Amino acid sequence: MVVTRSIDNIEFWGGDLALDFANTTEGPGKDHLRAYADLVTWAHRAGALPPDVRPQQGDLRRARELRSAIYGVFARDDPRAQRTLLRFYAEAVAVATIEDGDWVWAGRRPNRPLWPIAVAAVDLLRSDRLARVKQCDNCDWLFVDRSRNGSRRWCSMDECG
């Protein structure tokens, strides 16, 4: 049985919040973020937003810009995409506080769902896991290869392998 992906059931196979966000598109014409409400739904499912937080209505232009930047950084090592990512990161840390070692964002601003994603992307970019970031040989989704020998080629053995 083939299951059609939607924002309500899209898998989190990236192994990292930022990569899972990049994977909310499946190439041209298949964008799972069709409305701002989809971004909020995905952010709640991914743990990027607490369940009780409902941001003010926003548009998807910035979310798509961040998603494109994340994909550009991790799939193509694009310096322009990295500058865009760092701009989002700077905004995120400018409005955050740190409590018990974790980033905390308050309020209901429209870009709030994007802030933990931008921070996760920069954290991944600076980590030793960066060498394990790969692109699926079948669907082009991004994932962190956690296999012992680093030879994983697919986002999911069930779906693409």
Structural write-up:
38% of the residues lie in helices and 7% in strands. The protein is mainly alpha-helical and 161 residues long. It has a two-stranded antiparallel ribbon with strand order 1-2. The chain has a two-stranded antiparallel sheet with strand order 3-4. Strand 3 and strand 4 (142-144) form a beta hairpin. Helix 3 (61-76) packs across helix 4. The relative contact order is 0.17. The model has no long low-confidence stretch (mean pLDDT 94).
SSE diagram, text form:
Elements: H1 17-22, H2 36-46, H3 61-76, H4 79-94, E1 97-99, E2 102-104, H5 114-125, E3 133-135, E4 142-144
Antiparallel strand pairs: 1-2, 3-4
Could you list the spans in which at least 5 consecutive residues all have pLDDT below 50? none
Q: How do the strands of the widest beta sheet line up side by side?
A: 1-2
- Beta-strand content bin: 5-15%
What is the CA–CA distance across the termini?
Answer: 16 Å
What integer value in Å does the Rg equal? 15 Å
Mean pLDDT: 94
Largest sheet entry: 2 strands, antiparallel
Number of strands: 4
- Overall outline: globular
Spell out the helices and strands N to C: HHHHEEHEE
- Give the helix tally: 5
Helix/strand structural class: mainly alpha
Percentage of residues in helical conformation = 25-40%
